[in-house]
Amino acid sequence: MRIKRKIFRVLIRIAIVLIALVLLGIAVFLGLQISGRSRLYGMYEGKAPDLSRAVGVVEGLTPEDYAGPEEMEDNWQEGDVRYQGSIYRYNQDILTFLFLGIDEKGEVEKKKSGADGGQSDAIFLLVLDPHTKEGTVIGINRDAMADVDVYGNTGEFLRTVKMQLTMQHAYGDGAELSCERSRDAVSRLFYDLPIHGYCAINMGAIPLINDAVGGVEVEVLEDVWKFREGEKVLLKGEQSYHYLHDRDTKSFNSAGRRLERQKQYLRAYAAAAVEATKKDITLPVKLYGTLSKYMVTDVTVDEVSYLAPRLLDYSFSPERFYSLEGETVEGGVLEQFFVDEQALYELILNVFYEEVTD
Do 212 and 307 lie in a common domain? Predict the structure, then answer.
């Protein structure tokens, strides 16, 4: 009987330790979520885009559209805008993240040169609206003409030049500095839009991301690599890299067509990722660790812990995947994409603002 009592007491102690560890794990996870939410929302609290910069650029806008009309004096807030008879207010609860696909195959390496950081072949904004539980993806043409800060080989700032947006990442160290400058350039393009985090991934890591959710099925949009337009393919491994990366640079607007492939892939990937995460809630954190050598991001583990379970409640409908409208023209050696400012302005109101109805 004494032996049985001793065994029982040992089992009780083991059970208590296991329960304590589980509770500790839950506490740590909840602590990370609280910390993550605080970090995400704290950095841009009270900030909003400066849409008044659109006066003189977008047809029909006047300075009066940014001053409270008398009939709405009680409801008007600083930063509100009137457009085509309606009043719009920036959604302070929205979260916006910049994703960059960098034209590098290997692991991230900091560059010494101030102009050799690698170009961003894929540029996307992920927008999360907790009011509607909708996720929006905005694809930005790499050749979009934007204000790019140019730096010399020793890192000194030279000037700001209107050039292809993809070049901003190159004017940096290929790591944090390049990402911060790219974030600032995209923010400027969107009228100083708050961007809550960035994530740049060397495109050589695409197979890792792809296979983490069991592959992604697409209907091929154009002849590229070994794929033929119209065929259905479950992309695995290196196939995903070639589908998202390859293009015929001698063909006009090949960057624009590749952007459509990337956008199509992201729609399919979002659905696959949600299903995979439902089966394993820790998948985003695991993927975060797997990609660490190929990725540069200011999104922390606690922010990922906050976002991951909430993303399961979001819908990513095809109607919420946008590409910036504009025109591609021959710009000498390189193509240039000129953004349609009217369409951009309306897209910003549609995605980042809410109509004031009171």
Answer: yes
Q: Report, in this order, helix, strand and coil percent for the chain, each rounded to 5.
A: 40, 25, 35
Q: And the tokens for 190?
A: 């969107």
Which letter does DSSP use for residue 165 in this model? T
CA distance 291 to 168: 23
Q: How many whole angstroms separate alpha carbon 267 and alpha carbon 137?
A: 9
Domain total of the chain:
2
Size of the chain in residues? 358
- Closest listed residue to residue 182, CA positions, set 127, 224, 121: 121
Strand 321-323 relative to strand 134-139: parallel, antiparallel, unpaired?
A: parallel
Structure tokens given for 352: 């980042």
CA distance 172 to 181: 8
Please write the tens of the pLDDT for every residue from 315-339: 999 999 999 999 999 977 889 999 9
Please indicate, yes or no, whether residues 184 and 64 belong to a single structural domain of this protein. yes
Residue 87 has pLDDT above 60, yes or no: yes
- 13 and 86 belong to one structural domain: no
**How far apart are alpha carbons 117 and 349 in whole angstroms?**
33
My answer on whether 210 and 323 are in the same domain is yes
Give 325-331's long-range contacts (Cβ < 8 A, gap of 24+): 326/141, 326/144, 328/141, 328/143, 328/252, 328/253, 328/255, 328/256, 330/252
Q: Provide the domain limits for residue 184.
A: 43-355
Separation CA 264–CA 49 (nearest Å): 28
